[in-house]
Amino acid sequence: MREHPIDVIVDKFQEAVVHVLEHRSGGELILEAVDAADALRQLGYGQGNEAEMVSACTGLEGHGMRCALTVIARISTTKTLAPLATNELDWMGELANLLLGSMKNKLIAYGMNPVLGLPSTTAGLDLKFLTDVSDHVVVLAITTAGPVVVALNFELGPAEIWEFDRRLAPADQGVVCYF
Amino acid sequence: MNVNVLVVDDSATVRQEVRAAIAGTGFNVIEAEDGEEGISQIRSGEITCVVCDVNMPRKNGIQLVQEIKQDPEYADLPILMLTTEGAQELISQARDAGAIGWIIKPFKPDLLAAAVQRLAQLTTECNVPN
Predict the structure, then answer these.
(1) Fewer CB atoms < 10 Å away: N or C end of chain B?
(2) Which of A84, A91, A95, A110 is the best residue to mutate to test the B interface, defined by the most B CB atoms within 10 Å of its own CB?
(3) CA dist., res. B124 & res. B127, Å (int)
(4) Of 3.40.50.300, 3.40.120.10, 3.40.50.2300, 3.40.1550.10, which CATH number belongs to A2-155?
(5) For A28, phi and psi rounded to 5 degrees?
(6) What is the pLDDT of chain A when averaged over all its residues?
(7) Domain ranges in chain A?
(8) How many CB atoms lie within 10 A of CB A167?
(9) Domain B4-124 sits in CATH 3.40.50.2300
(10) Quick check: B59 contacting A, CB < 8 Å?
């Protein structure tokens, strides 16, 4: 199957957000494509309640592509999504890693194998995006634990189509593959 | 025989979640936050089996497997990789280096517990006197 790279990236990004956050929240979620300002409003930004938030960023690079993913949530949401976490910054970094790692694994079947970076994190009151995200794909995931905002920026090489090859796809997540 | 499971991951949350997943097995859990510390733990303690991340600062999980498996004293130590990575190239590197298996995160706690029990059993069988 031959597909346009931008369609593939956006599709796999959204699939990764749904898969990872449903797994974490233990229930179905609602995913909405929104602009950055709407997304932050949903988190409570700028509404005078000084919501304590945590954010993580990580990246993918190689094979003619570059992606940067940012995830933001209220700390109260992260405490529900990861009850065992003693450090919300650490958990948010792991969440960013899971989200972009999951997307990366979905791209392997298209012959893409970029390198996944290590995450960086920040926390604070009324946190917002630290960079201009006007050209990002932004999704709002309404989980059972609360809203989570995920933004993806990407640059792609000149290829006009990507071809899906099922034989390249990795094993399902969570399955133990013994050698 | 005490079973000591070494969990190597740079995320404290993941280490905690692995600890919780295998709590029902009664095994002891020892933690390391990167490959360098993991190798030190293996060489200084009586580790039965290892659950190891791949992408970590200082020394990654593939390097840990390569270094440990080259040491005859620890060549039989079962090491299971637990990572977000699903790239065949990395999986092949781990397999060639001597890892016993690979799980792509996010993991299912019951499957991980069963896998760790299988690893521990391998070591126990290796250590049964003739």
Answers:
(1) C
(2) A84
(3) 5
(4) 3.40.1550.10
(5) -70, 155
(6) 88
(7) 2-155
(8) 5
(9) yes
(10) no
Contact A141, A148 (CB under 8 A): yes
C-alpha distances (whole Å) from B4 to each of A178, B61, B79 are 21, 19, 13
Q: Do A97 and B84 touch (CB under 8 A)?
A: yes
Q: Name B85's bridge partners.
A: none
Contact flag A84-B102 (C-beta cutoff 8 Å): no
Block residue for tokens 């970094």 = A93
* Partner-chain contact A171 B85, CB within 8 Å: no
**Does the CB of B104 have a partner CB in chain A at under 8 Å?**
yes
Provide mean pLDDT across the span B90-103: 95
- ipTM for the predicted complex comes to 0.83
**Which has more confidence, A125 or A66?**
A66
pTM: 0.89
Tokens 């859990």, residue?
B29
* pLDDT score, position A89: 94
In this complex, how many residue pairs, one in chain A and one in chain B, have their CB atoms less than 8 Å apart?
Answer: 103
pLDDT for the residue A46: 67
Q: Could you give phi then psi for residue A31, rounded to 5 degrees?
A: -115, 125
Q: How confident is the model at residue B126 (pLDDT cuts 50, 70, 90)?
A: low
The per-residue pLDDT for B130 is 46
A99 touches A20 (CB < 8 A): yes
Query: Coil, strand or helix: which one is A106?
Result: helix
Nearest-Cα residue of chain B relative to residue A171: B86
Q: What is the token pair recorded at B78? A: 């079962």
Give me the residues paired with residue B50 across strands: B6, B79
